[in-house]
């Protein structure tokens, strides 16, 4: 596969659930949000060359497909059957990429079988206990020198100060 498949306007039209229609032809998504999504996977691709990659919360699969261009293999995990079906159909020609239905706090991946785990905007959507479970599973599946690439939205000044909205310490 060539990178042109991912830069074609029809591919960018549904970059992820967060980016409907087209990146810049809708008022539903801020251009900065679309740019952030693209930048995160571009950054991740620096680490994925010839690596075994797990994309947790892969959504429609565009990010997983992008990093698969230089990875040894990529597994995209998403909790919704319909989304996994669409991603699998859309990227069927990517021989080193597959999508599976799964929950991030119950990863069904072999121990020490992943070099790079990606979880962009996943932890910030989970209850604390589910996030802890996810991180435990990520630790289990990562190879000895494995790396987790993650990002999260900090929603309040309290979170920056180390307290969540319930007063608990982060």
3D architecture notes:
The structure is a single chain. The chain has helices spanning 4-7, 9-12, 31-45, 62-68, 81-90, 128-141, 157-160, and strands at residues 52-56, 73-78, 97-101, 114-120, 142-151. A 5-stranded parallel beta sheet has the order 3-2-1-4-5. The chain is α/β, with parallel strands linked by helices. Helix 6 (128-141) links the parallel strand 4 (114-120) and strand 5 (142-151). Helix content is 34%, strand content 19%. The protein is globular, with a radius of gyration of 16 Å. The longest helix has 15 residues, at 31-45.
Give the structure's gist in a few sentences.
With 170 residues, the chain is of the alpha/beta class. It is built from seven helices and five strands, in the order αααβαβαββαβα.
What are the salient characteristics of this protein?
five-stranded parallel β-sheet; single chain; 170 residues; globular; alpha/beta; disordered N terminus; 5 strands
Would you spell out the secondary-structure blueprint of this structure?
Blueprint (H helix, E strand, L loop, with lengths): L3 H4 L1 H4 L18 H15 L6 E5 L5 H7 L4 E6 L2 H10 L6 E5 L12 E7 L7 H14 E10 L5 H4 L10
Parallel strand pairs: 1-2, 1-4, 2-3, 4-5
Helix pairs in contact: 3-4
């Amino acid at each position: 596969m060539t990178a042109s498949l991912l830069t074609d306007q029809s591919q960018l039209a549904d970059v992820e659930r967060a980016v409907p229609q087209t990146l810049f032809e809708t008022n539903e998504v801020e251009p900065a949000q679309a740019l952030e999504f693209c930048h995160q996977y571009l950054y991740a691709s620096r680490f994925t060359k010839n690596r075994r990659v797990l994309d947790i919360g892969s959504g429609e699969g565009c990010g997983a497909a992008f990093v698969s261009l230089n990875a040894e293999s990529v597994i995209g995990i998403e909790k919704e059957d319909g989304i996994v079906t669409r991603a699998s159909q859309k990227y069927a020609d990517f021989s080193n990429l597959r999508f599976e239905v799964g929950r991030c706090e119950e990863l069904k991946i072999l121990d020490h079988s992943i070099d790079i785990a990606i979880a962009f905007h996943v932890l910030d959507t989970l209850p604390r206990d589910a996030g802890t479970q996810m991180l435990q599973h990520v630790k289990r599946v990562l190879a000895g020198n494995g790396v987790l690439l993650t990002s999260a939205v900090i929603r309040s000044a309290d979170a920056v100060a180390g307290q969540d909205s319930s007063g608990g310490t982060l």
